[in-house]
Amino acid sequence: MGAAPSTPRLGAGAPPSPGAAEQMFAALVGEKAYPISSEFWKQLLELPLTQQWPRDRVLQACHAFAQNNYQTKHLAKILIHLVWCLQECTSTTSVSSVVYRRAINAAYISSIFLKFIIENAKTDNWQELCLDIDKNEKGMEKFPAENTVEYFLMRGVLNYIGSVDVSPDSCYLHHEVLNLMLVLMSTQLCSGTSPEPKDVHPFIDAAMLQDSSIVVSVVQKLLLNVVTRPKFPTNGSHPVFSDDGRPGVLQRVGTAAANFVLLPYYTINYLVSSTPEGATSQLADNSLLVLLVMIHYRKCISTNESIPSNNIYTGSDANDKEAQVFHENPYCKALNNAKDIQYDRADVEGNAQDGPVVRLSFASLFDALGRCLNDESSVLLLYSLVHGNCDFQEYVLVRTDLDTLLMPILEMLYNASRKTSNQIYMLLIILLILSQDSTFNASVHKLVLPAVPWYHERLMHQTSLGSLMVVILIRTIKYNLSKLRDVYLHTNCLAILANMAPHVHRLSAYASQRLVSLFDMLSRKYAKLAELKNDKSHKVISDQMEADNIADDMSTELHIYTDFLRIVLEIINAILTYALPRNPEVVYAVLHRQEVFEPFKNHPRFNELLENIYTVLDFFNSRMDMQQLDGEWSVDKVLEVINKNCRSWRGEGMKMFTQLRFTYEQERHPEEFFIPYAWRLVLSRG
After folding, report:
1. Could you tell me which residues are beta bridge partners of residue 326?
2. Which family is annotated (predicted)?
3. Model confidence over 306-349: pLDDT tens digits?
4. Within a domain: 273
5. Looking at the domain assignment, is residue 272 inside a domain?
């Protein structure tokens, strides 16, 4: 496919022949530049696009387009035509199928060639896009003189997303526009893991400069798509498909271009499934991916650049000479300031928000997230909401059906071996944020679950949600100890348990046993490390540097396990100090395994905490000794004695320690984690 020798023409009113359609595409990728006012663009975008091309010709077309775009500026022109098509779709309530076809084809063609150019670009400033266009050219009269092409494009695309509801007629165009958004923002994949002042991302940077009204409407509409999960017509036909349902020319371009994988292009055959179920989630999923990429984007600027202080935030200490400074992300701000449409505290208090605000039903959002948390993208959205939006976090905490969110989270942690480490981190951080609230910690123990069908190790009937949390968190620690060996993951699990400890209410027998067995497991690991360190210190190692390194590593690991053991002791101690009468099963578990505490009785880091545990042990052991018993002790008889004496327990001799309280704080440079993570989720869809 080379340059067309002359302007291609289609017969008026007649369907285009295969040869004419091919001629149009040859002209698009060829050397001849067509003015933006040329009839060529209208004819191109109204093509039914039912041709079939082999892969090598598709790649030839992509290469030719990229090479000739320097002179033709066809990419900029088709992007401008796309915006004009979208404006036509936005300005009227009854949009003809021809207008939709033009808009869909413009978005689809743009995505394919943009994707190819982005993936094969050689410059950091994206000169290959050739977005500079002569604004004095005929037909450019309605193009705003002060706008760049990228700003004009993003304004048009975002305005369409934010202002046009998804309907059976518009859903395919929404799909293509969301795909285009992912392609436009994929320039980030060519940058390093941490944003730098030299980074250039023309399209997403332009998105950050849009009016607050557009920003708010986009965030609101994307969230609504996530909540409502709009369906595609089960008997619908996409405009780029031929009558027999086979993908046409553009589909072939999209599939072949996807061989240059940095960003997998969501081809239409992924959208139009043979079953209605397969077609219901694509719009919602893509809306969520676009939202995640946008809210986690950070534009780094030079510290000597003069900008208003209310429009920046710093990513590190103010004393750090290399402190990164970022422009405020308006999409992140809009999500963080989103309000519940059914109850807005600011309005009630007379402190209404200035300017437009995202408003939607938190109840619907809560329920939608509960249904979709098996999807990693939904987990990241939930994290973003509970961490950044105080109103949504407060809403979650006052819900009485916390199991809607917590059961999917706990089930995923139960299946940790099949999850990514990032997903496990996100799940634990969500639980840690929620566990910072004392009401939450009390509520989870009042909610009784009839059964836990996905827990296979034993039957769980009528167990509290809090007890299940304790069991799953301890199981996650044990899995991490044997497989991942991640200190950060250990710390988060123990932090959640520590926050819950003073509020524990009627912890189940199984959860109580697991808690004591966790101390036993960690203590055996500690003893083994201490023994190894002692052995190494007595061995003569020829390489002194190697010996020092081994000693340092073992000392560090021993110190870590010392801290872990102390936290577990603090957890047990907090339950016995603040909630003993309500937890006879914990007392039973400690009595039953009291020998595991003996080796640490005189340990300088543990002795104060163990004094309290032994005060409890002495109290209940003495009460057991006072019992006149016919026959042997049984579990029921021991529990009967414990229950009786729990009621008379007054806590005499117990030392009161400051309650452990862990809070979550983001790392100094969260963008180094969240930007790559958001794109990893996008890429995983391919």
Report:
1. 300, 313
2. Belongs to the dymeclin family.
3. 544 455 444 544 444 356 788 899 999 999 999 999 876 555 44
4. no
5. no
Residue 120 lies in a domain: yes
pLDDT digits (tens, 9 = 90+) for 153-194: 999 999 999 999 999 889 999 999 999 999 999 999 998 878
In the block, tokens 């709009």 appear at 230
Helix or strand or coil: residue 405? helix
User: Residue for token digits 């999960």?
Assistant: 229
Q: How does DSSP assign 570-590, residue by residue?
A: HHHHHHHHHSGGG-HHHHHHH
DSSP 362: H
**117 and 216: one domain?**
yes
C-alpha–C-alpha distance, residues 320 and 317, integer Å: 5
152 in the same domain as 44: yes
Mean pLDDT by 10 residues, the chain (686 residues): 47 58 90 95 84 75 95 96 95 84 93 92 89 90 92 98 93 95 95 85 96 97 96 66 44 36 30 36 94 95 56 46 76 97 62 80 96 94 97 96 96 93 94 97 96 94 96 94 84 96 96 96 90 67 54 78 94 95 96 94 91 94 82 85 90 88 90 94 87
Structurally, the chain folds into a number of domains equal to 2
The encoded tokens of residue 235 equal 């008997």
Q: Which helix (H) or strand (E) holds 461?
A: strand 461-464
Residues 285 and 399 in one domain: no
Same domain flag for 398 and 286 = no
Q: What is the pLDDT of residues 245-283, one digit of tens each?
A: 444 444 434 333 333 222 223 333 333 333 333 335 799
* Token pair 């090479």 in the structure block, residue: 67
Q: Which residue has the tokens 């599939």?
A: 255
400 shares a domain with 296: no
Q: Cβ neighbours of residue 512 under 8 Å, at least 6 residues apart?
A: 583, 585, 586, 588, 589
In the chain, % helix, strand, coil (3-state, to 5) comes to 60, 5, 35
Please give the model's pTM, rounded to 2 decimal places.
0.88
Q: Identify the bridge partners of residue 449 per DSSP, sorted by sequence position.
A: 463
Q: Kindly state whether residues 252 and 396 are assigned to the same domain.
A: no
Domain assignment of residue 34, yes or no: yes
What pLDDT does residue 508 have? 96
For residue 339, the SS3 value is strand
Domain identity same for 298 and 425: no
Find the domain containing 591 and state its range: 391-539+547-671
